[in-house]
Amino acid sequence: MKQQGQWRPVIDWDSEWDQKLSSAVCKRLDCGSAVSTNISSSSSETTVWGISRSCVQSDWIVRECLWLTSTRKSPTNLEVVCSDLLTQPNISFSTHIDGVSEATQQGLRVLMGSDFTISCSILPQYPGGSFQLIFNTSDPEQKTYTLPAVNHSAHFLFSAADSTHRGEYRCVYHLYVFSHNFSSESRPLHLTLAGLKAGELKRPEPRGKEKHLQGAP
User: What cystine pairs are annotated (predicted)?
Assistant: First the structure.
């Protein structure tokens, strides 16, 4: 746990920690519910955080239930895994060179026929993982695409936008860590289509020079 700007193992001197206490810790840290609790033996010599079981049971703030022990062999390490382990991923939209998009009350609008990219990213917490792009349309069949996370992001490229690309997009980040599968979902991104194809934008005609007619003297 990170306390006073430093990460250190947490130990339970009484070795009487249970899933109920883990659930209380996750709830008070605003990290969802407890997924697992593990108490393992340790022979390493390091400075650790001790945690008071009775303090947690008394509804105190979790960080106020920790105290810093001197450098010594810690008999056990306490590992609590909470369900909201991952931050929420981000979803973003961009068009390619000749694409034009604009924000509307219904979401983002892209020109018919233009190429575009939906990008998924997440703050760096753990290496690896994958991004799943979920695409909902008026069609009852849901479309999904999956790419591995590279530098904590993935980019889904689409070409020649048409009516089948109109709908709601969401990024879901999947990660296997601490012997469990975790996932976190982004906010939805709504995409609509404009009727004019990319490359067919009308440009104003250049105005010619005015002709001055000379009247008869």
Answer: 55-65
